[in-house]
Amino acid sequence: MFEWAQDQSAIWQFIIIFVIAFAPWMDVSIVAPLGVAWGLPPLGVAITAFSGNFLLVLLLGYFFKQFNRWREKRREAKGITAPTKKEKNPGRFGTSTVFLD
What we know:
Layout: H1 2-6, H2 10-22, H3 28-37, H4 42-78, H5 85-88
Helix pairs in contact: 2-3, 2-4, 3-4
């Protein structure tokens, strides 16, 4: 795939960088050097890779927020009002879902 991407125009290379950065298992620190190795401008590669990775983070945050809303509605429908064990004892870092509210 990388040989094919090197032969494409700059627009397609930026699209490939964005898609690879959007993948959950890839990091900007891997994708940015790849784009620079293809001969793309470093600033453009950095912005594109960051945008792809940031979009993934936003979508995951939105998904978890919706999941927590669904879970709360489900608990209310079942009549469960007591906090769970994790909510009672949040651990050493505090409640992990505070930023999602």
